[in-house]
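User: Structure tokens for this complex, please. No commentary.
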Amino acid sequence: MRTWLAFLILCPLAAQETPPAAAEQAASAAQPAATPVAAAPETTISGMIDVGYQWRSGVGGSLDTYRTVVNLGSGLKLMGLDVSFDSAVRRWFDHINVRGYNWGDPYNTAHVDASRHDWYNFSFDYRNIAYFNFLPSYADPTIGQGIYLDQRSFDTHRRMSDFQLDLMPGKWIVPYVAYSRDSGFGRGITDFVSDANEYPVADRPRDKTDNYRGGVRIELRKFHATLEQGGTKFKDDQDVFTSDQNLGNRTTPFFGEQLMLTNLAQTYGIRGDSIYSKVLVTADPFSWINVFGQFLYSRPNTDVKYSQFNTGQFANLDLLLLYTSEFDLVNATAKQPHTSGTFGFELRPVKRLRVIESWMTDRLHDASFAALNQQILTPAVAAQLADFNDRLVRNYSQEQVDVLFDLTPKITMRGGYRYVWGDALTRGGLISGLPTESGELRRQVGLAGMSYRAGQKLSFNIDFEGASGDQAYFRTSLQDYERARLRARYQALNSLVVSATFSVLNNQNPNPAVKYDFLSHDASVSLAWNPKGGKRMSLVGEYTRATLRSDINYIVPQIFQSAPSSYRDNAHEANAVLDLLVPGFGGYSPRLSLGGSLLITSGSRPTEYYQPLIRLTTPTHKHLSWYGEWRYYGFGEPDYFYEGFRTHMLSVGVRCTQ
Amino acid sequence: MLFLPRLLPAQTATYVGSETCQACHEDIYKAFQKNPHVAVEKSSKRGWEGRGCESCHGPGSKHAESTNAADIRNPAKLPVEEADRGCLSCHLHQPTHVGRIESGHARNQVSCVTCHAMHKSPEELVPRRRAAVNKECANCHTAVWSSFQRPYKHRLPEGAMSCVDCHNPHGSVLPRSIRTVSANEPGCLKCHGDKRGPFVFEHAPVRLEGCAACHEPHGSANPRMLTRHEVRFTCLECHANTPTTAAASKTLGGVPPAFHDLRSPQFQNCTMCHVKVHGSNVNPELLR
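Assistant:
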């Protein structure tokens, strides 16, 4: 409180304060010219700006796939802007940093940090991410007829903004407020589903979430608490519509009638809100123990008003009726109280031994109610009124203990045990005929690990967990599994670092009704070589071999018999950049970068994706450099040849640094 | 509170102040003036005013006399737990560290200085630019970074996202250090707000197992980052229970009705009709 009062009192003083530089200038003007003047602190501006023009050649192959995967275009771009202001006056701020990247591209960002020592830290972050997804092979039942229409496609943007203001950072008590907005909008194609047929129609998704929160952090010498209260507001106003005659995906008449859609107006009016609370605590009451805990609670609600009007020729299989127009209304609501908590401690009973114990629980109870009014207008049928109640319950708990022992100053061994248990209740499936289904989760996991660290030259780490699960929620969930990771890093020379990682996950569900067998491996090596600090040359590269094998039986719906589902993915992934100093003139030497990335996979969906790169950067002045860059994007899938694409991208630009 | 017996200089060492350090380590001293840790040097709050260097390195009188590196504490060469204890003597009581001791990084002896360069610029101390964050994480998580070279992925290589948008490297209540938003919701929902719900008709795996039940969040060769090359297998591997098999397997997920003839392309992509597969507010079958 006293700090706040001091802050409020000092604000007007700060506003009236003469900047030191100006004060000294005035003083020096009043003094004889020969009087020496002390050097005034200066406001400094530093950073860089990178402006360029990007030119894309024509796209060979599928433009839609190119836009789905890469989506870069031609034009003038602000490739990067990163400017910092350090104020000498320090009236309203000490430091401001403004950053922006890729303006002109479909993925652009902006960020502002401002701070005043002991007063505030402010940050603003903005992102605009284009989400285009139109793959001819995806959701396209008409592809056999030569119609390349992805009936689940989007051309949308997601925009996210975050503001946060911390007051009195570094003090014992730090209040803060924050606001975030996430919005999505655009257009697309989706399906309107009716009995016996579905119709690709225009879709206009629009959603927005506003998130407000505020709290206080109390950071004392032996205790910390964060108390936060927040809330969200959500709305989703998706429109699905058409006014053209649409025969849908059914190519044959249904009971002698051609089903069709001639007009559709489907409107979602979804509103949601939530309040949430967060309490985080840490404490080290004694030198041999640290304690931590969290309590998290949220209570999101949704209110739904949905309307649908459609005309055409439709079938209602429940009523065994053909009809031409329909009007539906849905009013619904859903609530989802969600509580989570953790508690744990780290105990250090003797010097080389640590015991970490933690408990966690997460409880989510979703309850909803919907009232459906379905009115078939032509022929006139009495309105069908139906009420639905639905529930989803999830109770999850976990207890874990880890014991870490420093065998030597360089070697730490770890062993532990985790027990996971929970239960779930969900809506019943159509085949079961039951209103609800329940599932249980029981898993016992053994943990082990070792880390070795020989100075800064060599380190490696092994992490293993093996589990025996009695019960899992789903057929493909983790059940009886072993997971191991190994990481090693070796600095062979001052200029050369080599690292390697290996991980494996082997998961089995031996239950005769499931027979799930999953195995994945990842092995990768990377190298960073910077002879003489990388002044003349540097090389960074990595290679990964990733394999995945999955086998499980499923039931083929039309015959209700078991069939195997096998998935394979064997990938080679590599990327590298070689950076060379090219002898130049005038004291400025160009740098040439060669590299790129490649992906080659075989298995269930063989894919090849190449992105080579050449870049030449030529300094023309101490603060100015020119660059040119060539990139190539080549993508191909043997099983879906019509989705391949290739294109060249040329960029030229200037980068100015200060 | 920062000092641990091992590798401490002899007990005769005393504090000499940062200006003494500056005499030989001018470059580090200068760079440190722009480092947020300079607050330790300039503030009386933690009791290290004028002795910022020695707050981490211990008393420096013996080292100042001998100029021998062995006569001063170097946290980078200490056992991880001891080095971290030094950092956490100030930083433990901050919200980012609440879940720290549960995190994989802490369990696997990844020390603070592995990611944070103490003496350097603020950006090197705590990388904030997305490309810098990604580079830092990719140093160890090579295979994960390679996944982002796949065609269908989150936009990390483009610089629109960073690893810490989804993961909290200091620890989280969720597996794999997944960040939480709005208290206890998975971090995925920060950007995918339209999938947040609660939905009137939920799709159970979304709540019970999260997005990774069907998606490879880092990158995939399959459209929509799905775990399988065709949508129907993603769905049918779980939706394979008749009442008999459900009783035997004790798992959730009933087989679809028999009119789904998978030989017809009309039924090969389940999400073409079940358009609200993440949860519907209107229809129990997730059709609208």
